[in-house]
Amino acid sequence: MNITLFAQILQTLDRVSFKKLVAKHQTDKHEKGVNSWTHFVTMLFCQFSKLNSLRDVCNGLKSSSGNLNHLNVKLPPCKSSLSYQNKHRNWELFQDYYFDMLGKLSHMANFKQTRFRIKSKILLLDSTTISLCLSLFDWAKFRRKKGAIKLHTLLDYDGCLPTYVHMTDGKVHDAMAAREINLPKEAVVVADRAYVDFQTLNRWAKGGSYFVVRLKSSIKFHRLDEKPLPEDRHQHILVDEYIELSEKKTKDKYPKKIRRVVVYDPINDQTIELITNQMSWTANTISELYKARWQIEIFFKEIKQLLKIKSFLGTSTNAVLIQIWTALITILILKYLRSCSKYNWHLSNMVSFLRLNLLVKFDLRKLLDKPFEPPPKPLDDQWTGQLVLFDWGD
Hints:
Blueprint lengths: L4 H6 L4 H11 L10 H14 L4 H9 L16 H10 L3 H18 L12 E11 L8 E3 L2 E11 L4 E9 L4 H5 L9 E4 L6 H9 L3 E5 L6 E6 L10 E9 L2 H6 L4 E8 L4 E7 L6 H9 L2 H13 L10 H24 L6 H10 L7 H6 L10 H9 L6
Parallel strand pairs: 1-5, 5-6
Antiparallel strand pairs: 1-3, 2-3, 3-4, 6-10, 7-8, 8-9, 9-10
């Protein structure tokens, strides 16, 4: 193989679509010697290598100077040029390219769950907080002496990849951010109790979507009717009933009846109260959907541990957003490669393998399919020929 692993990874990307988006956003209008593709490749290199500074990223890319042609890069950017582009190039280019590649790679990899026998698209809603230094990121308000940003994420259960990401400062409440989210018809969104906002839930229900949300203990209601529970299975289901909100303030926001399912969690020895507007699915399906919400916590753990997303190369909002969207493109590529591999990879192990061999010229497909295959043994005549060099005679 005559090209590096990093160059082979980039071959999974669609450059034609990228050029179209560059023309749409006019991001090469004032490129200052660093075009959008070079900028994008450099930020991807930052994510795959997980380097800590602008200088490290630029010098790392320069170390592969003989292989830059395979990356479609003429010259790697210097530190000041990369800093300038992170501050000024429109971050929406990277956002649009993520969603473009999500549609193409998820179709090619066939990200499809088989756990639930329901036709509805399953979406997991949650947010994660990233702490920042308030003196450097003065726009990221959180507490008096601490800065932070929140990534409000809607995760598609098929493939566990985001279909919606919105960044705010740390002060924005989850329920307030959810008011901006529009769900596709007949999709089901699963969320924790931070998203109990009956105005938003009513809007989703009117749009033909479903919700499964954990109920707050402070919400008051009265019972309308109770459904019989199966006696022979699903003993963790304690209550399955229809309720109506009793307080005028909440009832005005959601006047319809709601289904309430109470589940016992033996691991944490607690009961969990769930509400939903889906009346036909079994109570066990409702409980399993909420249990699947843990996948979004795993996703947040993956991007924070495996990618460069807890510290940033620039302090502006634009630089932070560019780094976040290139991180999401990276996790998309990684999950696509894992789905195409014959070896049963854990994502963290695969990332370590690729990171250690990023600039090595090795067949990517062989590395992914047979990572621990021993190298071929040398032929005997090759060794014989080498020994002749040291045959000094008598």
